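Can you make up a polypeptide sequence alongside its tokenized fold?
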Amino acid sequence: MDTGMFLRRTGAGICMAMGLGCAFTTETIHIAYPGPVSVEKVKGAESIKVKVEVKDLRPNPTREVAKKINAFGAETAPIFNDEDVLPLLKRAVETELRARGYDLEGGKVPLQIELLTFLHRYNSGFFSGDSLAEVSFLVRIRDAQGREVYTDTVMDSFKHAAGVFGGGNVKQAYEQALPGAVRKLMGKAEFHAALAKAAEGV
């Protein structure tokens, strides 16, 4: 057995023995979007047909959503989501809109979501560390004449303690940060007022 293979097998064995995700092994996770349990319908939403459009404005669009770190805090293997981030974001926004009564069939009112940040960082400490996910996006609504009637930037983050720097903590952090950002948008009265305004004359 050559030296490289011996070291790889030894390292993998140590990772398994310690019950840790090996820092040098690529991992793929599934970031799910937890649908809203109970939200109020928006008055008049059923008559507003929304078309959700998403764009990726990140400097390096990718399915890589995090990196593992080793015991010294250095970044190592990548962690990927099992689907592109844009479909996930689009589904999240549409889920929240449907829950509030909006019609997404044959949508005519353009709601543009421009992804700015979908980022995760691990930080290591003496005994443990933390896992931090950040999500931010720009929101634009235009009326039938193409005039912008609403623009806003929304963001949220989630941080929690982590003893293992693998995919599980990354998944948990994003499944809090993404809903947090989308629901901040849904909680703004001016956002819903802009959708109603844009729907006039459509």
About this structure: The longest strand covers residues 109-124. Residues 167-186 form the longest helix (20 residues). Residues 1-21 have pLDDT under 50 and may be disordered.
